[in-house]
Amino acid sequence: MDSAAQNDSCGPFEGPEKLLEIWFAPSPDQLPDASSATDGKFGLRKVPKPVWEEMLDIVKCKILSYVEGEEIDAYLLSESSFFVSPHRLILKTCGTTLNLLGLPRILEIARQHASLCSVYRCFYSRKAFMFPERQYGPHRDWRAEVEYLDAIFPNGAAYTVGKVNGDHWLLYMTSPGEDMFAMTAPNSPAPGEIPLPEADEASGAGELEASEFADFTKQDYTIEILMTQLSPSARAKFNHASALEAVEHNPRQHALDLSSAIGISDIFPPQLTTLDAYSFSPCGYSSNALLKWRDGTGEGPAQSGEGYYTIHVTPEDGWSYASFECNVPLPSLPTSQPSKIPDLKTLIRRVVNIFQPGRLTLTLFISSEDNANAEEEGGETAVETAQRAFKAALMTSKALSGVCGARTSGEGDGEKEFQGTYRRTDKINYEFGGYDLAFASFELRP
């Protein structure tokens, strides 16, 4: 990331991001203006870009580039990413940004520009900071962040998952369907609430015919791979000292070329992907990608089929960090067809093969309706399946060598393939209100 953009750029840069996700309805087709939408521009996607820019000024970050998809608008930021769907937005920021301070303004924007006066669900999460003492405002301490959110939402719950004195993941979430409203600003009158359906009335997206993804259209699914202690060879690819002129002349083209050279462009099938990337000077990298993961994308609010992934890299020695996040539901079984969406195990291998971390944390956060059905039928839940995939991807001998769809660190430069294997240091399955979590931490074996 661009450390120079931070007030304290002379010190270490905080790679782990703050992730805020706000839902104003269970699905796009349940928004008030869904039936009158043209070109997918309804709900939050009607908000003009300058309005979002003003909100991001509060957060202390800037828009670098923008991709307009069929169903999602993806903004690449000076500090991470911002995704806007008609019914939901995701603000992910790193460094010393003031992510939560943008929340009151987001709620005002939703009410003023999209007639969305009520929040369906809100999620805030982050990995433990490397340098918490360098944060500002409520982000200095998890307790302060929780208190800030509790002052806005009447029904939130906070969790710490993992070792308090080691790798852990922090989550704040609200529950739906309790006449919940969020204040637009402290001490301001509460906005009038519009009726929103209860959680169990959500219809989900249209089902696929003859497709392995038929059940996934109803899921909320997010996989995160949070990596530290990147290998020297992996870090070197994001240090642009030898190509500063190219980076400064055209940072987007440099990043796209780099994405192709090291395998980022091949994590998902290129024909399904619209990639937007940016190289920072003198080091760092960010990318957003929009993925058309099923047929019928953009055909209507009830036919959702576009997702995203996002990658951010801080390569400096001593605090190197890379993150991968994706909300496309992944199949549990591999496919031999390169044109298909990869299964979870293959995806993990492709990502880890690129960044070669010494330590990593994986989380799969998924709506729990299918898990409950699996338990009732005596089958395996999605989080149990995910834990098996985590283990198979990282603990199998030579699991990461020669991974299909991703170039190895040695291609073209005489280096050897990455053949590292990992040992698991933590494994937790957690049941929340309406969601289940698979959490696991790993470290590279000597």
UniProtKB/TrEMBL annotation:
It comes from the Eukaryota. GO terms for biological process: spermidine biosynthetic process; spermine biosynthetic process. The keyword Transport does not apply. GO terms for cellular component: cytosol. Pathway: Amine and polyamine biosynthesis; S-adenosylmethioninamine biosynthesis; S-adenosylmethioninamine from S-adenosyl-L-methionine: step 1/1. InterPro entries: AdoMetDC-like (IPR048283), S-AdoMet_deCO2ase_core (IPR016067), S-AdoMet_deCO2ase_CS (IPR018166). Keywords: Polyamine biosynthesis, Spermidine biosynthesis. PROSITE patterns: ADOMETDC. Gene3D superfamilies: S-adenosylmethionine decarboxylase. Transmembrane segments: none annotated. GO terms for molecular function: adenosylmethionine decarboxylase activity. The keyword Coiled coil does not apply. PANTHER family: S-ADENOSYLMETHIONINE DECARBOXYLASE, S-ADENOSYLMETHIONINE DECARBOXYLASE PROENZYME. Belongs to the eukaryotic AdoMetDC family. This is Uncharacterized protein. It comes from Phlebiopsis gigantea (strain 11061_1 CR5-6).
